[in-house]
Design brief:
- The chain contains 25 helices and two strands.
- β1 and β2 form a beta hairpin.
- The radius of gyration is 23 Å and the shape is globular.
- InterPro entries: DUF112_TM.
- Keywords: Membrane, Transmembrane, Transmembrane helix.
- It comes from Streptomonospora arabica.
- This is Tripartite tricarboxylate transporter permease.
Length: 540
């Protein structure tokens, strides 16, 4: 009963006219900034902090929290319409969202993203209200070895993100890990893969790689397809039929739960949550082979996960005073400047801030849904823009987003280089998703591994003596071994019923369907695999 009274008190605070106004301002600002490549939640909150200084602490934090999850919500729009992820947490949304947009289903993809985001945020708020203190204690018990094993488990997503050719997926993931190691080693001050170039001393920014291999590569691909036509300019209805609603409900629920619990772990965040939700759905779905070519479940799962993770990241921030990401670190600084010390005593010392922010998240998610659904037809009209106008606009967005990071021309050359790399990869059947995943997890894995080995005095057994770590490593091994064993079991039956020369041309990947977009796909018994591979390559 006490919890219900506290929740009621939180809604009374959040629904005060002034706080309600700033919830609206926060989520609207965050949504707009989240749509622009290069300006994610960190930039959005940093821009709004000067406005927050002269405000009441509760109102200020409610507004800044609205900016945060509004930016996560809005980042899906550019991912779906332009294949240019506004923030890293919406990269996985582009895998199926952009192919849907090219098929004339941009309105439906945006509607699914909006509903899944609302669901994920709502589930996250409910869990935050009910079990925040207990989850905070669990998050603290996670050590460096556990985090390393969690990253290893996340990296096994290359099995599903790599398409039908696991070898190419693994190669792309290794390239991503190598890119993550570029720069000065923070512990030994050793130069790694910098080639004496000062601009590489601080490493390669994630945004440069993401915009290059997705957005700029798509521009090159559209220019190459100049004579073959582009996406469908028509925009279908936003309505979801009963069958689609039933299809979307399970992945949205799973993504919401997974996203929240991953978000609770400091350092994990919305990006890892969205990738894990996407790869999980692709593994367990009966139609997993269609992921990457416009499957609606591939939009719902990551969108529900990244919004739930954004809410989950407030658990360690508010209950322990531990920021789990760069964005929540900025929020922590804002709280301290406003005279609020987050931590175990926050519930008793500042109940208005704690419960007001928690309740405002639910109100803000509702505002986001009501605000964005009517605007979807307007957003979707971006695809009707003539190609001669649209392509330069995409390039301008990419250039502005990258140049705004450090104001150096060198970053623009890097953007061009990764754009060419992304185009070459898709032309040769190498998926971009594992590269991005390797880039995201590479640095985190190295940091956690080093911390674990320092604590254990160099004893590698620390990764299997911790129950959490050992369990996660077992799951990672099973995640890799399962699909590999399934491929080996299918391999002997591949030659039956097909012409031997064409079956032999499939390489060493276990059958003729393994090469995405392969030249011989059209001559095979079923034309579907070649088409799927081509769409998957273009969608990524």
């Amino acid at each position: 009963m006490e919890t219900l009274d506290q929740i009621g008190y939180g809604f009374a605070v959040a629904l005060a006219p002034e706080n309600l106004l700033f919830v609206f301002i926060g989520v609207l600002t965050g949504t707009i900034i989240g749509m622009l490549p290069g300006l994610g939640p960190m930039s959005a909150i940093a821009l709004m902090i000067p406005i927050a200084f002269g405000m009441d602490p509760t109102t200020a934090i409610i507004m800044l929290a609205g900016v945060y999850y509004g930016a996560v919500f809005g980042g899906s729009t550019s991912s779906i319409l332009l294949n240019a992820p506004g923030i890293s947490g919406t990269v996985a949304t582009a895998f199926d969202g952009y192919p849907m947009a090219r098929q004339g289903k941009a309105g439906k993809a945006l509607a699914i993203a909006a509903i899944a985001s609302f669901t994920g945020g709502t589930v996250g708020v409910v869990l935050l209200m009910l079990i925040a203190p207990w989850l905070a204690k669990f998050a603290v018990s996670f050590g460096p070895a556990d985090y390393f094993s969690l990253m290893v488990l996340g990296l096994t997503a290359v099995v599903s993100l790599g398409g039908k050719n696991l070898t190419k997926g693994l190669i792309a993931a290794v390239v991503g890990v190598i890119i993550s190691l570029v720069g000065i080693d923070s512990q030994t001050a050793t130069m790694r893969f910098t080639f004496g170039v000062p601009e590489l001393f601080e490493g390669v920014q994630f945004l440069i790689v993401a915009l290059g291999v997705f957005a700029l590569a798509e521009v090159f691909a559209m220019l190459a397809r100049r004579g073959t036509g582009g996406g469908d300019g028509t925009i279908t209805s936003l309505r979801l039929n009963r069958r689609e609603v039933g299809t979307l409900a399970p992945p949205t629920a799973r993504g919401s739960l997974l996203g929240f619990f991953v978000g609770v772990l400091p350092g994990a965040g919305a990006t890892i949550a969205s990738f894990m939700a996407y790869s999980t759905e692709k593994r367990i779905a009966r139609d997993g082979a269609t992921f990457g070519s416009g499957n609606i479940k591939g939009v719902a799962a990551p969108e529900s996960a990244n919004n739930a993770a954004a809410v989950g990241s407030f658990v360690p921030l508010l209950t322990l005073g531990v920021p789990g990401s760069g964005t929540t670190a900025i929020l922590l600084g804002a709280l301290l400047v406003l005279g609020v010390q987050p931590g175990p005593l926050m519930l008793s010392d500042h109940p208005d801030v704690f419960w007001g922010v928690v309740a405002s998240m639910y109100v803000g998610n509702l505002v986001l849904l009501v605000l964005n659904l009517p605007l979807i037809p307007l957003f979707a009209k971006v695809l009707k823009t003539p190609r001669a106008v649209l392509l330069p606009l995409v390039v301008v967005f990419c250039v502005i987003g990258v140049y705004g990071l450090s104001f150096t021309v060198f970053d623009l050359w890097l953007l061009l280089g990764f754009g060419v790399l992304g185009y070459v990869m898709r032309q040769n059947g190498f998926p971009a998703a594992p590269l991005i995943l390797g880039l995201i997890l590479g640095g985190l894995m190295e940091k956690s591994m080093r911390q674990a080995l320092q604590i254990s005095d160099g004893d590698w057994s620390t990764f299997v003596t911790s129950p959490f770590s050992a369990g996660l490593l077992v799951l990672a091994v099973l995640a890799l071994a399962g699909p590999l064993l399934a491929r080996l079991r299918r391999r002997p039956s591949a030659p039956s019923g097909a012409a031997p020369p064409e079956e032999g041309s499939g390489g060493d990947d276990g059958g003729s369907e393994d090469g995405p977009g392969g030249a011989s796909g059209g001559a095979r018994r079923s034309p579907a695999p070649a088409g799927e591979g081509h769409e998957a390559a273009e969608g990524r």
